[in-house]
Structure formats: structure tokens, C-alpha cells
Amino acid sequence: MSLRIVVTVKYVPDATGDRHFADDLTVDRDDVDGLLSELDEYAVEQALQISENSDDDVEITVLTVGPEDARDALRKALSMGADKAVHVEDDDLHGTDALGTSLVLAKAVEKAGYDLVISGMASTDGTMGVVPALLAERLGVPQVTLLSEVSVEDGTVRGRRDGDAASERLEASLPAVVSVTDQSGEARYPSFKGIMAAKKKPVESWDLSDLELDAEEVGLAGAWTAVDSATERPARTAGTIVKDEGEGGKQLAEYLASQKFI
Amino acid sequence: MAEVLVYVDHVDGAVRKPTLELLTLARRVGEPVAVALGDGAAETAAVLAEHGAVKVLTHEAAEYADYLVVPKVDALQAAVAAVSAGGSLAAVLVPSSAEGKEIAARLALRLGSGLITDAVDLEAGDSGPVATQSVFAASFTTKSRVSRGTAVITVKPNSAAVEAAPAAGAVEALAVSFSEQATGTKVTSRTPRESTGRPELTEAAIVVSGGRGVNGAENFAIIEALADSLGAAVGASRAAVDAGWYPHTSQVGQTGKSVSPQLYIASGISGAIQHRAGMQTSKTIVAINKDAEAPIFELVDYGVVGDLFDVVPALTEEVKARKG
């Protein structure tokens, strides 16, 4: 038996940097350093663990859609231990929304061949958290998402989803789309050996024509939502800061009372 | 007047507060038609009517509890078809829970409609509803609209006030036929979360959070005592959760809950970007921290530089005394 896992990853602007919008109200990717979205490292980690715990022949492909620099995210995932990578890159993809992204990913996942897709719970820039569900809808396979625990055995994926009201145990037959949370287990650091080996691993590059997609279906023009304005939130006006000299709790209570909270 | 579908989040017929907030927003763009699914669906009608629902479409079936997400998408799609057949549909509003966003996304894709998630405000516009979102850890505010199809929008808790607006709330049975995908992911067991007796974190008017400075699971008792004196929910920073001091379900921040209460009290939290992403839209922010240089003090309306083990218990006593 073989198990083909595709891990979808995103190259995002560093959240600790000064993130901005470009003139066309898309995310400015030029002025901030990018990196593999932290939440996608958990997806790579779970793919590696499934592989390590499996008797099957497991092949892990990491897939990203993004500009040239997004290759850095693939390289990181390869150095963690993934086998190969696919980079979907096309100038016409600029400004693609979540629905468009799921279309490109669905085409790429199908072209790569898959039994299991693993994604992170959300990107750290857009933070919508809907791409895994959209991908499952497009592929017509079960959605087993937001798992804090996942395992694969005999063609069945099982996991635990911790919701607001309850913790649920889920089960579905492969092929399926899974997403994992940051509670699924710390992601490993690439070893020196892993980093060296990653340099020799294959990275394929596909454009829209390779996926039989038209430019009108994606990008800013193909987006089904429009951002009309983006305004920087005014800095909060400087508050009152007091040093506790034994009366801090009392002073704070007075402030809360003045604001009618008590 | 165009109708607006509102997806009802309820537990065995008890409607959760964010759904009532959605009704307030829905009334700005059309006539609210609520969709309630699963056990207890019909029992939601009275409270929905009080808050403006002209109609309540209901459907009960075991599939909603036994399988993940897709049965609810099928039902909402059926509701869209039913409303569109008899009139015009201005928007579909869904509470921004993890599940709500997944339902909304799959529905939008099926309808060929644009999707907006995590709106914090909604108003009528010339070309459809305009949603306000708070992005990049709340450092920017954007205004967006759906440019294709019927707007599908998820709205965060605490985005609007709950308002009484009595309407008919006529209950109608919704006809739903489940798709082939509906039974793809089976829920094999469900363990309800133990109730803390405190308000739900994302819905609470006041949140008291503890971070690294709390320095141990046992010390969270003083955070809880302050929360209880104020009738508040308890939150925790990622550092406190990762250390195992407080459950992940209480984590406030980018990978946890995003909260927007009237009052947020951060105790022993430095205010890293990961935490700010989840609380920066709070109306009033108060912090207690030993380190005068902690970035959290850049956000506060009122800050106390001091030891939380002195300040928090003193505050709790003072609150109790004032409340009598």
C-alpha cells in the first residue's frame, strides 16, 4: 500500500513585521519579510508523524501557491522532511481570494495525486480558516478539519476536534482533507542533515496553463469580493499608567467605577 | 423588501447570543429569516421572533449531530433556494465560529457567491451590504463587499447590541434533501465541555486574562476570583496555555479566541503580537504588569505597573466591597 499526502502551505508576511496593504488593497508582500506560515508547520509535522507511524509507503508532497519567494516556504518544509514540492506560480494569481485559492489548490492536488490533504488551521495573514473546507467541497471528499489529534489507519482517518461546546471524535474514509490546529503537536526544527538533503529534493513549478485554469478565474479580477478601503487603526490614545505603591488595586477599582464597570 | 437569512447557533433550542446580534445587523439590510437546524430547532422560534425574525425555517434530523458540517450546508442551501424562489435574498449571515465559517465558505462556493468572514460591523450599501473587518492583528480596518452572487458573511460575536424588535417569527418546516457528501465525516463521539459557570469567553462583556506572570496553574485562582467578582469570563495567553496552566479553549490570541468585550483586563501578559491579535478590538483595556516596558501598556486605557499578586487580590476585594 502506498499513501500519498499533499500538505498545503502558505508563504506569509512575518506577523512581527510592519504589515501593510499595497495600493490595490492587496497584502503588501514586498516590504515585509516572508516565511512559512507557523500554523502550516503543524501540518507538515503531522504528515511526517503519519509517515513515521505507518507501515505503508508514504510520500509527502508540499504544495504552495504564491510568488517567487514562496519557494522559501517549500524549502523549509522539505528540510523538515517532506519528500518533494510543487510551487504554483503565475503573475495572474496576484490578488486571488480564498475561493480562488481553493480552486487552484484543488486543481494542483488532483494533478499531483493524493490520498490525504493536510492543511494548517488558518494562515497567519488572512486568518479566514476556510480553505480546507473549500478544498474538500471542491474535491468532493470528506472534510476532517481543526483536529488537535490525527491518525491514519487502513484507509481511514480519525481525529479529535475540540469545539466551543464539545470535543468530538471524527472518522472518514480516504481520500480526505484534514486540517490540524496548533494543539496537534510542536513542529520539529529542521536538522542540519535535513537542510542539506532539502537542497537536492525536487521542486516542480506549475503555472495556470499546467492546471488548465484561465486567468479570469483567479486573481484580483476573478475575486468574488472587493475591498473598498483599508484604514490604519488610529493608535490608542495614551492611557493612564500608575505605579503600584500599595494602592494600585484601589486606584484600578476607582477607574473601573468611573467607567461604570462596577 | 429583500430578505436576509440568519443561521441560528443554538444548543438544544437555546439560542446563543451571537445569533441575536446577527438579527440586529440583519434588520439593517432586510427582513431577517432565521434557519434553525437539529434537535430543539422549533423551540428557538419565540426568542428569534422577539429579536426580529419574520420567519423561522426549521428542520430536525439526526444527520446534523452525527456528521460534520456538510448536512448544515445542504440545509442552508435549501433555505437559500426557498427564499430566492419567493422573493429576493440580500445576504446570508452566519456567526463567526469555527464551524460557522466552514459552513459559510462551502455555501458561498455552491452558490457561486463571494464570502466575507469575521465581520465586526455591517451596513446597507448601494451595491449590497458593506462589511467592516479588523485585520493584521487589528492594526487595520477594511470595508469590503461581495461583488458576485448573494453576499455570504460571517460576523464575530459582540459586533452589535442585542435589540428587542418583535416580529411574527412564523415557523415553517424547511425541506432538505442531503447530498452525497453529507455523511462523509462521521462524529463517532461527543464530549460536552464542562461548564465553568462563567460567561462564554467570546460573548462576555468583561474578560479577565492571565499570562506568563501568573506563574502556575494554581495561581489562576486569583484570576478566576477577580473574574467572578466582575461576572467576567477568564482568558489566558498562549504562554500560559502552552505551559499547561489553563485550557486551550480559554486561549485569547491569534491561534485561540478573538474577543471584543467592553472591558479586557490583562494580568501578567506582556502583549506580544500573537495575543494582541485576539483582544486589540476590546473597548476598554486595562493591564497589570510588573514590567513598565511591556508592550501591553501601549494599548491600555489604564495600566498598573506592579506585582499582580498584590494588585489583583486587592482589586477583587475592592470590587466586592463596592458591589456590596
From TrEMBL, chain B:
Quick one: a GO biological-process term for this protein? Answer: fatty acid beta-oxidation using acyl-CoA dehydrogenase
Question: Which species does the entry assign this protein to?
Answer: Streptomyces zinciresistens K42
- The name under which this protein is listed is Electron transfer flavoprotein subunit alpha
**What is the purpose of this protein?**
The electron transfer flavoprotein serves as a specific electron acceptor for other dehydrogenases. It transfers the electrons to the main respiratory chain via ETF-ubiquinone oxidoreductase (ETF dehydrogenase).
Cofactor needs: FAD
Q: Where is the Electron transfer flavoprotein alpha/beta-subunit N-terminal domain?
A: 4-187
Q: What are the record keywords, sorted? A: Electron transport, FAD, Flavoprotein, Transport
Q: Which Pfam families match?
A: ETF, ETF_alpha
PANTHER family associated with the record: ELECTRON TRANSFER FLAVOPROTEIN ALPHA, ELECTRON TRANSFER FLAVOPROTEIN SUBUNIT ALPHA, MITOCHONDRIAL
Family (UniProt) = Belongs to the ETF alpha-subunit/FixB family.
Cofactor binding comment, as recorded: Binds 1 FAD per dimer.
The molecular function GO annotations come to:
electron transfer activity; flavin adenine dinucleotide binding
* Transmembrane stretches, start-end: none
| Subunit structure as annotated in this protein's UniProt entry | Heterodimer of an alpha and a beta subunit.
Q: Which InterPro entries match?
A: DHS-like_NAD/FAD-binding_dom (IPR029035), ETF_a/b_N (IPR014730), ETF_a/FixB (IPR001308), ETF_asu_C (IPR014731), ETF_asu_C_CS (IPR018206), Rossmann-like_a/b/a_fold (IPR014729)
Instruction: Identify the residues that bind FAD.
Output: 212, 237-238, 251-255, 268-275, 289
